[in-house]
Fold:
Amino acid sequence: MIRVGIADDQPLVRAGLVTMVGAAPDLVAVGEASNGAEAVELARRDAPDVLLMDVRMPVLDGIEATARIAREAPAVKVLMLTTFDLDEYVYAALRAGASGFLLKDVAPEDLFAAVRVVAAGDALLAPAVTRKLVDEFARRPAGARFDPAALAPLTEREREVLALVGRGLTNDEIGRELYLSPATAKTHVGRILAKLGARDRVQLVVTAYETGLVRPGE
Structure:
C-alpha cells in the first residue's frame, strides 16, 4: 500500500483528493496539511511515501516546503499539483526537490499512475513540463548555465547514461540505446544517483542540463 499525504490550503480540494486517493486499491491517505509549514510537519511525522503538494499556500509556499522536506525528510517524494502552468513554478519546484509536477485538472487515473511512478522512485514529468524545463535552460546565457565539473565522479559510461536520462529515456530505452540489459541500465542509474547525491531521476534531468551534458534542441 502506498501512503499518500495531501497538502492544499483549500478544504474542498483536500477533501476531493482524499476521496480520489481512497478510490485506488493500492493507495491510502495518511495525513492532511493546509499550508506549507503543516506539510513539512506532516512529512516529518507521518513519513508518507508520496506527498501531494499545492504550489500556492499560506505561511510557507509549496516550493519552500518541498525544499525543507528534501533536507529534513528525504525519503518522502513530493508530487507538485497546481492550477498554474507557469515556467517559474515548474523549474523552482524541480530544483527544490520535487519528484513530479502535474496540473490539478489531471484525470484520477493519471493521478494514481503518477503517485505510483513517483513512489517507485522514477521521475514524473508531463511533456509540457519537460518542454518548460528545456525552455528554462534555453533562455539562460550560455556562460551561466554549465558546470561540467559536477560530473567528475562519473565514468564515461555513466555520463552516457545520464545524458539519456536527461533526454527522458526509461531504463528499457537506455538499455536498447547502449546495448545493455534493463537491469544493467538501472544499476548505472542507481550509481549515478549515489555519486551525484540526487534524490531521483528528476534531479538527474536537471543536472544533465545544468552541466551542459544535454543541451536544449539536441
